[in-house]
Amino acid sequence: MYGNDFGAPEEASGGGLLGEVEAAEAALREAAARQRRGAPASDDDLAGFFAEVVEADQKIEPRDWMPEAYRKTLIRQIAQHAHSEIIGMQPEGNWISRAPSLKRKAILLAKVQDEAGHGLYLYAAAETLGISRDELVDLLLNGRQKYSSIFNYPTLTWADVGAIGWLVDGAAIVNQVPLCRCSYGPYARAMIRICKEESFHQRQGYEILHTLSHGTPEQKAMAQDALDRWWYPSLAMFGPPDGESTHSTQSMAWKIKRFSNDELRQRFVDMCVQQAEILGLTIPDPDLRWNDERQAYDFTQPDYDELMRVISGDGPCNRQRMAHRRQAHADGAWVREAATAYAAKRAAENKEKVAA
Ligand code: 3HC
Known about the structure:
Elements: H1 16-33, H2 46-55, H3 68-87, H4 89-93, H5 102-127, H6 133-141, H7 158-176, H8 185-213, H9 217-236, H10 248-253, H11 261-279, E1 289-291, E2 296-298, H12 304-311, H13 318-331, H14 333-355
Antiparallel strand pairs: 1-2
């Protein structure tokens, strides 16, 4: 959570994360201003040049040679991320018509629209790797690409909208701030803007829970119930434990990922403990306690078998989420056709103008 709207100390509230985004943005500008070593001397030097650019914390750009596996990993990760933003609109969209006030409704509407925007930035970043948005959407609809496990859980009460903002967007930010320093330029640049917007999302969720947890006993119970249901799925968002993470080692060597799944999960837990205290809510983990030696909290790991079941399509809402997305895609066919026809008409008009 950023800022001090609730009297939360900046450190306790994880305020340093937005500072990290700003530092990453400055580093991106510096990297762009620094003269990157021109180009590889010959085709034999392509891999060496790629390795040097990554090593020097410069950015790989779409025109650069890159290993095929690097391209594929990026397409997988960026597409999965984009799909998550789009599918992630459903659980919260569910509450737009039932938000408890006009103000809450307007805020939630803006937030859900932001998620659509994030999906679009990310599809655009993936397209720079030589795949089209249509192909990516097909891969999602055919079940050949994934989206985040977290969006397969239901939003049962209004407090869930708060818990999604605080915990899900909070976990997303902890995971995504390091991606602002990703070695692939278009992804890193997209992440800067996304993280800034996500910080607002997290604050709005925290503020909902703060209001509920300082309201009537029933409201506080609703907030606690939401925390009880969203805590472990939020921890699972960071992915399997390091020992079972297929891609981490290579992705970290390529500086796509900067921290391992477990490192980020730990960072998230450490950040949440004091935030929960300020809310007056209890994290549902009897074994959560400060470890002086590690200077971090010990905590109970999420159920990774459950994570794998959810990822493979067997979570509480997987079928509903995909059915809804397929229906929305089919319902939007006429919009895509109209936009394509309009673009063709404009292109023909421009051609005529140039010829005249
Ligand atoms: N949900 C679904 N799939 C997951 C997952 C999760 N929470 N965690 C891991 N996986 C999948 C991986 O994609 C990989 O799939 P594969 O075997 O088909 O290739 C497999 O499980 C093994 O995991 P790895 O740890 O090896 O995978 P990664 O190195 O890719 O790490 C990740 C996983 C940390 C999620 C990484 O991909 C990442 O940082 N992605 C970008 C961020 C992202 O996609 N966030 C999703 C949430 S977006 C969001 O929350 C929107 C916001 O508005 C709320």
